[in-house]
Structures are given as structure tokens and as C-alpha cells.
Amino acid sequence: MTGEHESDRCYFCGGRLAPGVATLPFVLDARVVIIKDVPANVCVQCGEAILDSETARIIDRWLKQVEHLGFDVSVITYAHVSGEAIAVG
Length: 89
Ligand SMILES: [Zn+2]
Fold this sequence. Notes:
The structure is a single chain. By secondary structure, the chain is of the alpha+beta class. It has one domain: Ubiquitin-like (UB roll) (Roll). The chain is built from two helices and four strands; from the N terminus they run βββαβα. Strands 1, 2, 3 and 4 form a four-stranded mixed β-sheet that branches. It is elongated. The protein starts with 16 loop residues before the first strand and ends with a helix. The model has no long low-confidence stretch (mean pLDDT 85). Bound molecules: zinc ion. The site of zinc ion has 8 residues, from loops.
């Protein structure tokens, strides 16, 4: 199970991917963070959004930073996430 996960096909239905943006929920224990305007490859067939590895890493890093904060549900834009992840990182 090594190698690239990135491809031009949807993992789920095999549909074609097109560049776009997505609104994605991320669950941290009992909390939910919704990130809007995330750059992603979006499946034209089922609408699944697939992040490239750099975008996923930025979000993952940011989520680790906010894990300990006391919110239940938060909605944020990707521009904010990427800005903070780089600044604090
Ligand atoms: Zn699909």
C-alpha cells in the first residue's frame, strides 16, 4: 500500500475529477469544523472532493492546533486555515 493516491479519477465511483472548491466537514472527537472554499478536485459524477496532499497536510496541521479549543462547531474558510497554519506552524 505505497505510492501516490493522487489521480484524475474519483476513489469512490471512478468518475472524472475537475478542479474546484469544496465545503468539507472535519470531525474532532465531539467537535465539528466545517472548512469552506477548500481547493479540491471534485468528482463530476458523485461530487466527492479529493484534496491534494499539500492541502490535506495544511488542514491536518491546523486541526491539530485547534483540537484543544473549546468550540463545538466552527465554520471557517480555507484562506484562514492556510494562513494560520503557515503563521503558527
Ligand atoms: Zn465520484
